[in-house]
Amino acid sequence: MTKTKSNMYSDSVKQWNVFVGCEYDCHYCRKSFQAQMKRQKHNCDDCYTYTPHFHPERLRQSLPKTTGDEFIWACSSGDITFAKKEWIEQILDRIRELPFKTFFFQSKNPKCFRDYKFPKNVLLGTTIESNRIYKTISKAPIINNRLWDFKDIKHPRKVVTIEPIMDFDYWTLRRWIYSLHPERVYVGYDTKKSGLEEPPFSKTVQLITTLGNFTKVKLKYLPIEVLDRLPKMVKYEKIDNKIEDYSGW
Ligand code: SF4
Asked: For residues 57 and 249, what is the distance between their CA atoms, to the nearest angstrom?
C-alpha cells in the first residue's frame, strides 16, 4: 500500500494557529496534530498538552495570498468548539480585513459554526469519515449529529472531509454528502496506521466515482489500489502532497 507523508491539506498555504487545542481526543490525532504540537515543548506548555488556548500575538501575522482552491487554514491544530467566542471574533475581524484571501475552518462539531457570522471568503468544513458510528475512536459528536448540524448552517461555502475514511454504507454516505451540497470533498485513508476499520478499496473507488458526478473531489492519501482503479473521466484532482512549514508559529 502506497501512502504519502503528510495528512494535511495541500490546498492549505498556511496553518494559522491563533487558537490551538481540542478535547475530542481522536485516536489518529495523537499521531498527527497533537504530535506536531509536541514540537512546541519549549515554546508553549498549552500547545504541548493540546490544551485549548489563544495566541493573540499571531493575529497580526503576515498571511500569504491564496489562489484557486488554496486557503489559509485557521485554527488547524484544534477545534474551535473549545475556543472562547471572543477569540474567534477577533480572528474573524482579521479575516474581514482580507477579503481576497480564502480561509478555512473545520470542526467535528459543526453546531459551533452557528455562533458566528462567517464572511464569504471563509470555507466551512466538517469531517464525515463514514455514515456509521464508531464511538471508540473519538469523543467528538456522533456522525449523524455532525450531518444534521452542518446541514443547518446557512453558509454558501461548505467542504466535507472523508478522512480518515472508515467503512461505510455506500448509498447512505452518498446521500448524506449530496445533501450537504459541498463545493468540494476531500477523501483520504488514515496515514498513521491507527488500526481503523477501513473500507474495501472497491467501495472507495465506487464512492469517489459517484461523488465526482456532483462535486469536486480532491484526493488525499489513497492506496495505489484505489488510485489505479479510478476511471479517467471522473472529475477529481489528485493533490500533490507536501510537508508543511511550521516555522514561525
Ligand atoms: S477533532 Fe480534530 S483536533 Fe480534535 S482531537 Fe480530533 S482530529 Fe484532533
From this structure: 10
- Ligand 1 pocket, CB under 6 A: 22, 24-26, 29, 33, 78-79, 108, 138, 140
Tell how many helices (H) and how many strands (E) occur in the chain.
7, 10
Q: Which of 155, 163, 241 has the alpha carbon at shortest distance from 208?
A: 163
Distance of CA 79 from the midpoint of ligand 1 (Å): 6
Enter the pTM of the model: 0.90
Determine the pLDDT at residue 189. 93
Indicate the domain borders of the chain. 12-238
pLDDT tens for residues 55-81?
999 999 999 999 999 999 999 999 999
Neighbour-count burial of 44, counting CB atoms closer than 10 A to its CB (0-12 exposed, 13-18 middle, 19+ buried): middle
